[in-house]
Amino acid sequence: MPGLVDSHVHVNEPGRTEWEGFATATAAAAAGGITTIIDMPLNSIPATTSLSALETKQRVAHGDVNVELWGGVVPGNTDELRPMLEAGARGFKCFLVHSGVDDFPNVDERELREAAKELAPTGAPLLVHAELPEHLHEPAGDASDYATYLHSRPNAAEDAAIELLLRVCRDTGARMHVVHLSSASALEILRRAHAENLPLRAETTPHYLHFDAESVPRGHTEYKCAPPIREHANREQLWRGLAQGLIDIVVSDHSPCTPELKRGNFMDCWGGIASLQFLLPIVWTNAHRRGFGLDDLVRWCSSGPARMAGLTGKGAIAVGNDADLVVWDTEETFTVTPEIIRHRHKVTPYLGAKLRGVVKETWVGGRLTGS
């Protein structure tokens, strides 16, 4: 099969390499059949919001698989966007709510529109963490109970943000991309965008397709992410969104940290799920049981992300393309144990999960790499 392209990975190097670095992240990717990762601009120090910061990260961004980089949009850096594109950034990521780190501040509607107008003529995508802060709630209840965290970040926060993206996309013509969609009620907004032929698209992640809020154990903070894992019915609607083409791609949103930062309760600990190595089997396990096939997997996890990021020669087996390939057994199963994890840390909600699909070989540019 074509190697997977994971366009949503937080590697955190330089600056927070104790969370994850390119050596461990790319080893995990190779072990999971991923041949290209695209690293997000926050969590590294400096954040990738200027040409000089991009160049700093480019010097360390290499390993067992292809590495590409997103730039970041923050208040006041519009003049940096074109130079970063020219230097190799694939596009840009911004937040509409606090990002979790103070050195990557979120933008408001005016700043979002300014960036969209700047990027529209370039065709580069603007990736958006779509939650609006005015729709978030103060936690009410036991902070060790997952429902308390879930209720603090309701669907309405995502839905209102995606409505805003629809308006900005319509007004500017910029390519807009919703990262890690968790709210199934936003699918109708995406349906309207498709009907108007607007360049607004969305991704979702394995944790929203595999887990449900009802099953998150009390105090198990390895399940915390933002937006949150939502209810069982919401999960099944996301699968229908994939079937209908309203969600285009599935990427890991691999967002690791040190074990210490995951301690505490759901309101206080770091939000992020580590899953890079297991993207392929998580998606395949769930897709197979719902009647989806390999063509769907390739579209969601290989060709779709490559196309979204403007990567030529990736995501398909074709004459002239890069020889980025994964050889895997679609029937064999395995259990996720700490011993097999190649990420820097072993903190993941997938520990103990029995998954279908075992990677045998990963080829990057015609070269056999980790397996």
What's the SSE pattern?
EHEHEEHEHEHHEHEHHEHHEEE
Which structural class do the helices and strands define? alpha/beta
- Provide the number of structural domains: 1
- Indicate the percent of residues in helices: 25-40%
Low-pLDDT parts are none
CATH class group: Alpha Beta
Mean pLDDT: 97
- What's the arrangement of strands in the largest beta sheet? 4-5-6-7-8-9
Please report the total strand number as a whole number.
Answer: 12
Radius of gyration: 19 Å
CATH architecture: Alpha-Beta Barrel
- Estimated share of beta-strand residues: 15-25%
The end-to-end distance, rounded to whole angstroms, is 15 Å
CATH superfamily: Metal-dependent hydrolases
Number of helices, where a helix is a run of at least 4 consecutive DSSP H or I residues:
11
Largest sheet: 6 strands, parallel
3D shape: globular
Molecular structure report:
- The protein has helices spanning 22-31, 51-58, 78-86, 109-119, 146-152, 155-172, 187-195, 206-210, 232-243, 279-289, 294-308, and strands at residues 4-9, 34-39, 66-69, 71-72, 92-95, 126-129, 176-178, 200-204, 249-250, 325-335, 354-364, 367-368.
- It is α/β, with parallel strands linked by helices.
- Helix 4 packs across helix 6.
- The longest helix has 18 residues, at 155-172.
- 54% of the residues are buried.
Topology:
Blueprint: E1 4-9, H1 22-31, E2 34-39, H2 51-58, E3 66-69, E4 71-72, H3 78-86, E5 92-95, H4 109-119, E6 126-129, H5 146-152, H6 155-172, E7 176-178, H7 187-195, E8 200-204, H8 206-210, H9 232-243, E9 249-250, H10 279-289, H11 294-308, E10 325-335, E11 354-364, E12 367-368
Parallel strand pairs: 1-2, 2-3, 4-5, 5-6, 6-7, 7-8, 8-9
Antiparallel strand pairs: 10-11, 11-12
Helix pairs in contact: 4-6
